[in-house]
Amino acid sequence: xxxxxxxxxxxxxxxxxxxxxxxxxxxxxxxxxxxxxxxxxxxxxxxxxxxxxxxxxxxxxxxxxxxxxxxxxxxxxxxxxxxxxxxxxxxxxxxxxxxxxxxxxxxxxxxxxxxxxxxxxxxxxxxxxxxxxxxxxxxxxxxxxxxxxxxxxxxxxxxxxxxxxxxxxxxxxxxxxxxxxxxxxxxxxxxxxxxxxxxxxxxxxxxxxxxxxxxxxxxxxxxxxxxxxxxxxxxxxxxxxxxxxxxxxxxxxxxxxxxxxxxxxxxxxxxxxxxxxxxxxxxxxxxxxxxxxxxxxxxxxxxxxxxxxxxxxxxxxxxxxxxxxxxxxxxxxxxxxxxxxxxxxxxxxxxxxxxxxxxxxxxxxxxxxxxxxxxxxxxxxxxxxxxxxxxxxxxxxxxxxxxxxxxxxxxxxxxxxxxxxxxxxxxxxxxxxxxxxxxxxxxxxxxxxxxxxxxxxxxxxxxxx
Amino acid sequence: xxxxxxxxxxxxxxxxxxxxxxxxxxxxxxxxxxxxxxxxxxxxxxxxxxxxxxxxxxxxxxxxxxxxxxxxxxxxxxxxxxxxxxxxxxxxxxxxxxxxxxxxxxxxxxxxxxxxxxxxxxxxxxxxxxxxxxxxxxxxxxxxxxxxxxxxxxxxxxxxxxxxxxxxxxxxxxxxxxxxxxxxxxxxxxxxxxxxxxxxxxxxxxxxxxxxxxxxxxxxxxxxxxxxxxxxxxxxxxxxxxxxxxxxxxxxxxxxxxxxxxxxxxxxxxxxxxxxxxxxxxxxxxxxxxxxxxxxxxxxxxxxxxxxxxxxxxxxxxxxxxxxxxxxxxxxxxxxxxxxxxxxxxxxxxxxxxxxxxxxxxxxxxxxxxxxxxxxxxxxxxxxxxxxxxxxxxxxxxxxxxxxxxxxxxxxxxxxxxxxxxxxxxxxxxxxxxxxxxxxxxxxxxxxxxxxxxxxxxxxxxxxxxxxxx
Amino acid sequence: xxxxxxxxxxxxxxxxxxxxxxxxxxxxxxxxxxxxxxxxxxxxxxxxxxxxxxxxxxxxxxxxxxxxxxxxxxxxxxxxxxxxxxxxxxxxxxxxxxxx
Lengths: 465, 470, 100
Known about the structure:
- The structure holds three protein chains of three kinds.
- In chain A, 36% of the residues lie in helices and 15% in strands.
- By secondary structure, chain A is of the alpha/beta class.
- An eleven-stranded mixed β-sheet of chain A has the order 1-3-2-6-8-7-12-13-11-9-10, with helices on both faces. In chain A, strands 4-5 form a two-stranded antiparallel ribbon.
- Chain B contains 14 helices and 16 strands.
- In chain B, the strands form four sheets. Chain B has a nine-stranded mixed β-sheet. In chain B, strands 5-4-15 form a three-stranded antiparallel β-sheet, with no helix packed on it.
- The radius of gyration of chain B is 29 Å and the shape is elongated.
- A two-stranded antiparallel ribbon of chain C has the order 1-2.
- Chain C has a domain at 1-48: Histone, subunit A (Orthogonal Bundle).
- The mean pLDDT of chain C is 92.
- Chain C is mainly alpha-helical.
- At the A-C interface, helix 9, helix 10 and helix 11 of A face helix 1 and helix 2 of C.
- Strand 9 of chain B pairs antiparallel with strand 2 of chain C.
- Chain A: It comes from Candidatus Roizmanbacteria bacterium RIFCSPLOWO2_02_FULL_36_11.
């Protein structure tokens, strides 16, 4: 049976109708990983022997393999966050996301590569090597959820869990040409996700299509008593919500096109025209320049990082602090400074205020429009090593993603075809708090309309069975 | 500062000669909730095998998150109310960042600029060294909630770490530096311990470390003592590892002596943390190395803020506290301070006393007690342990009646006994007749003793008087 | 925002101690350059008027999120699990070099 590129929903149908055995499906992906991942390096751990896991075609995932970013704790399976500090750390517990996937008979197939501690936009800071872009091995997959994005793009897993602090799902999704959803902060439990910027961190989903994202979101979203920042807001039936075509007002902010590659701008314009044609209203909005979100994000995230990485002292688990890589050390140092006595007001407090400004800014904008649409990244995938040249190492790549993270609103990357270098281009749609269902609705419409410019077939022809 | 305080300070200044001790207290109390502050592990860590009382959260494993215990928050508010504090309507948790092997996350979840409560005061009566009853009022700076750390045992060139205690809810109570003598600090601590036990929120066992006291002591030179310009000394010595109130007093006294000697040489004592050696009754420097101290407090992003509504706060009530009970017993029952104080030290005994009194009130007509001040008599009987408070109240009352009620008198036996006693005490009768009427009490007493109390003293007295006069 | 200051090597050594990290001179040199570039970038926040703005301390609008005071047996770890990832242990204690 030809399985290449099949959606989770299609695979689920095959499993439920017993045309496909769960073990067969699992082996199918294991074989593909063996065949292709030596080069791509999207997985840090692959669970070769799945016999420990109950694989049954029951529950909402019916035995579908799921790839999990390596900063989600998995009971009994190494969780390193791609840092040698945790190179041999075996968690005694499952993160809530993983527990919920297992409860619905999802099978954890492996742990995906990331920047060490999720610090970066390229997976180049991973202590276990960079994840290569499936479209061009000389380029990065993006980060930090680069392993998850690359594994989905090359169909080494049908769907993957990633996490964002500010851009870490959308950027690699954009650069690898897959759908990547960062939900509202608090929509999905952070329990068991190795903390980076606690007031920003947000688990999310990477998949080849929108309906699959809706399916998995349904399973992992919702209040968790183990995470006090997970919210009570009820979870709607995302899958059903896709079936009604809704008409929306879409906002376009010029500030999100500054310093963006011309070819990308052109493609985004084309997408906006498509949306307009399908009946949505387009309206200009004015938003605070994302360059300020970069400062807000960097200050607050570094501060939180400096505190969150304090526990790695090598006493109870992992190596001692000398094992931290350069990027982690740099971030800890900066965060220690921005929180330190005498500088707290100038940096941390000021950043919190600016963060409130950004939040208010979106609030006002969302009174007039349902979404804000723009590019995900200012350029397509960088060459390996290229980001070192940039003064702000990666942070500028996340620039267009950071405002949504600052405000805690949901945002999605949709693949919108390839550029002249055959590299995927990403379209970003941002929505107001807890409007995931609408975000998925418009994304689904867009997918139906465009089939994402045929990107899936273009990618998968490079990765035949 | 009121005039009363002025006079006291001046007096103490004379007493202290050249230096004025400035003493503040920082008290940590472990709450006795069922579960820990931020996870569901049991709080009763004491005596368990090492590292057997933990979950991923209190062990600080990667990815874990804290969820605050509601009861711990309510109990902290209860404590704050008992200490007459202002409860902050909005309160939050903060991270206090520092490295120590007993601190699993390298930050303690504590409270910084918006503690649960601030600005309280505790009034209580004490008997001073001259046996005079005086009222003290101690200003409370703040009451906040945090998590306890693990424990370290130092052995050879290693330190052993046990995280059983990590994450137990810990309330920090800070006083203003208002104490001038160590006795007051000791009295305050005793009163606070009694209150916390009344509230039934903490065991306050100093030996187990469920109550910990850190006095801070400095001395102010009198030359700089200006009523209008209060300026505290530019250093402060904190004393840790004290496991009894008595040792707290000794440690403070030792520090006053030590710092006086240093100041006498023209030096300023070093600002530092010192330990207390209870065998030698001395303090010793604990951290000689200059350590970087910058806790980099910031709001705990994992825990949403707390907003206390009036209705929520109203539900958290404080029972009658020992201080009020002392007042009430003295005022309503005319008890002596000393009896009222002793009665109220143990909540159970005070409550027992209250139960007996209320029971008696409702059945007073039935009980023919012969006592001018019944409550006082009961108090004396309890304080002197004449009747056990282990008895159920009805039994207590029965014993009470037999001790205090008019006795059924066996007239023949009484007559016989009086005759014998009078016969044996002709000298006393003579004195009585000469006008020393007090002697009658001796005779009554002798008769009563002979009858083993089975007679009414007034009846006995009347009969003896009649007999003598006849 | 008023121009703050540039971090010097001694500032960095202090930060290094506070954050319990060891960095050699060449690492410090790289970090010094990078951090000062970053701090320069932060100056852009000065463009924003935040005088009348409250601090966005929390990302959700939730308040009073508590748990009830009950024991959660499901998460308790037995001693062998507690020590599974520890490099040094002795008689069910974690071990560090003596600190006092």
